Amino acid sequence: MKKDNTKNSKTNPEKDAKSQDLERNREYSEGQFITTDQGVKINNDHNTVKAGERGPSLLEDFIMREKITHFDHERIPERIVHARGSGAHGYFEAYGNVSDYTKASFLNDTSVKTPVFVRFSTVAGFRGSTDLARDVRGFAIKFYTQEGNFDMVGNNMPVFFIQDAMKFPDLIHAVKPEPHNEIPQAQSAHDTFWDFISLMPESMHMIMWAMSDRAIPRSLRMMEGFGIHTFRFINKEGKSTFVKFHLKPKLGTHGVVWDEALKISGNDPDFHRRDLYENIEMGNFPEWEFGVQLVPEEDEHKFDFDLLDPTKIIPEEIVPVTPIGRMVLNRNPDNFFAETEQVAFHPGHVVPGIDFTNDPLLQGRLFSYTDTQLSRLGSPNFHEIPINRTIAPMHNNQRDGHMRQEINVGKTHYSPNSLNDNYPIQAKESEGGFVSYYERIEAHKVRERSESFSDHFSQAALFFNSQTSVEQNHIINALRFELSKVETVAIRERMLGLLSQVDKTLAKKVAEGLGLTVPGKPEKPMNKGIGADADQKKHEPKPLNKNYELSDALSMIKNPTVTNTIETRQVAFLCGEGVNEKSLTALKKALESKGASAKIVAPNAGNIKTDTGKEIKADFAFFSSSSVLFDAVYVPSSKNNTALTENNNIIEFINNAYRHCKVIGFDNDLENLIKKTSIGTKPNMKSNDIPGILINNNTSKQFTDEFTDLLGQHRVWEREALITE
Ligand code: HDD
């Protein structure tokens, strides 16, 4: 019998507390009879009961009715946003250095491994949409702590489009497919999105992030994560410290290029999901360092922006990120629906030691997340679904409702009660009871926005100016692409007006791509989100604040935490029949010794022979693979190099890798092949003068060293200047 290797025990030998908790719901069917939901063994699962072999089906066939009825109801509503997602289990370990700031025990106790479940997602697309959409990525973590569940429901970008939750339905309506024809899928490049954005100057900072390569990640394992809002840490003495949450990936933060993203979507729409799943299966457990920016309560007003404004970062150069733990993902879900689809996150799931601030976006979120689960999961009992269940003891007087699992024993379900000695009883703060932060508030009830939220351009400019010129070009090209899909010229012009307030050159270059000029005197940006009777002047966007120093942490290329590891990178080896075994093995070994892998791409999907007659297995065939699925390409010579030269799939493979600035290595007798590719057609340039094109002379160590070194730099960006679209 074929062994089913999707069983979860494979990657989780130790079974953490959450895994043990899930065990009571796992169902294993090996060696079992098929039965109805009522446990009756089924004798024939292939035919309905009929009046005669060729007669009509009988309504009494309870087995058929049960099976079809269940099938008819298999789908639940997809998430209104973040519908497309991928999840994994893992753990969090604290470094034990934050007790001065928070009493949350999972952040302090170094002896405990806290189980986590993480769900990554895109925002706009439907559940079956491509992973490589240009979009923000959700980064939601459920920490199953011993004091209850803590959810960090963040993104891979540290700011948001809007400042007040009241605008969330408008933002999402604008970005989702247009209502009359439900086009386009998983894309922001259309009129309604940019119409909204062009009228919302507060979105400009987030637009810079969303148009950067952060919106097209190389891997979910190579993204930063952010809690975005300012939260509070509360220590044992009840003292509050403002905190922002950060996750920094061990593998560095990397994106793909836009043309590549488009092609990946065709070649493998599940690219990110597959990459996460396969790497966990292979034991390449993705890891992040969990860090915090801490701001003492008394420093709240020391910044040029408001800490409660979710469209602002605290630059890491002003308040550094302190690492306080690490998170590792080491186990795939057993069942996508039961776990990844049914998991329900909520920014309001906090534990003692973590509390909210008055960020108006966060405050609105605190309402929305429970509410949405009621329609998505269908009942206030969604906390009983195994993936959502806390591992902490859970007792209260909440009762009944659809699909209730718990059987509450006894006749009291109210408090106070005398019939059950008033149990379950309240916990004092010293016993771990959650006490809201004792914040003093004295205010008028107003439907208003704070004037301190009105600087919409300074941090957008900070972000843009902190990028390398390569990254700036990618932002410009992204804006050109997006706005070129906008049909209404007035929207394009309004966007140029807004962009010119971030950076004049940025606006000019985007305008060139649209065949427009930047409006001379930018139209005063409308700030529609403020409230009809509000003093509009007070809320007019403020001019650029030049006080910001550039921040390397905002650039993926300059980011000081980026390491040049090649771990888990995949290199395509394009191998013909009779491939040079010595050459293949030398680079393969060099890559594998540093944690990368070589994938054999061959004329067919079976086996090929090396020049010594050894059979090797192909991982992919030329005709069903593409360089966009790999990080680099190597072409060893083979007995029949002409066959390689004449294969269009190979030429296209190399041309794409060239265009996407990937390192490409060739054995030195492949000049004829090179001549047929974009590399060979560069006038006045020898191929090995082109950045990132390496010619291997006699399998030298210099070649393997250079190859691995460039692979570790992710892309050879110097080449981009040579590439004309
Ligand atoms: Fe949200 C889902 C992140 C603002 C309302 N949100 C959702 C998910 C993530 C975020 C990662 C998917 C969770 C999962 O994987 O199941 N949302 C954010 C961030 C925001 C944000 C980082 C701003 C900083 N969201 C936001 C606002 C509202 C919502 C302002 C409503 C007022 N979000 C929802 C929701 C969702 C959701 C409708 C859909 C599915 C779900 O909650 O469970 O309630």
Automatic annotation (TrEMBL):
Catalysed reactions listed for this entry: 2 H2O2 = O2 + 2 H2O
PROSITE patterns membership: CATALASE_1, CATALASE_2, CATALASE_3
Cross-link (3'-histidyl-3-tyrosine (His-Tyr)): 346-369
Gene Ontology MF, one: heme binding
Entry EC number(s): 1.11.1.6
Cofactor(s) recorded in Swiss-Prot or TrEMBL: heme
Active site positions: 82, 155
Signal peptide bounds: none
Keywords: Heme, Hydrogen peroxide, Iron, Metal-binding, Oxidoreductase, Peroxidase
Catalase core domain residues: 35-423
Database matches in InterPro entries: Catalase, Catalase_AS, Catalase_clade2, Catalase_clade2_helical, Catalase_core, Catalase_haem_BS, Catalase_immune_responsive, Catalase_large_C
Cellular component GO terms held in the UniProt record: cytosol
CDD domains: catalase_clade_2, GATase1_catalase
Enzyme class, spelled out: oxidoreductase
Region (Disordered): 1-34, 517-543
Family per record: Belongs to the catalase family. HPII subfamily.
Its biological purpose: Decomposes hydrogen peroxide into water and oxygen; serves to protect cells from the toxic effects of hydrogen peroxide.
Protein known as: Catalase
Source organism per UniProt: Flavobacterium alkalisoli
Organism taxonomic ancestry: Bacteria, Pseudomonadati, Bacteroidota, Flavobacteriia, Flavobacteriales
